[in-house]
Amino acid sequence: xxDGREFDEYIITTEGVGAYGETPEEYLCRMETLHELMAVxxxxxxxxxxxxxLYALDGLSLAEIGVLCGCSKVAVYQSVEAxxxxxxxFFENRLNE
Length: 97
Hints:
Blueprint: H1 5-14, H2 24-42, H3 46-56, H4 62-69, H5 73-95
Helix pairs in contact: 3-5, 4-5
């Protein structure tokens, strides 16, 4: 017979956990990281940003991005590498703060 204990235990274990199973602290950390990533991407040119996002988020190969953008694979590599270096520099500087 159901006496409510199971429901009470569920409420206690999920208290303070967001819709996707993250705590408020985890949400705050995720949002802070997102803002940092966006700050780095804001320092990039539109071309660098779009090529990097196609590579990093959409999973396209350098050759596929080259065809899509009408440029060489080397040009795509240089854009992606430039953004990657900006991320490395940003986070290395954050560690030294």
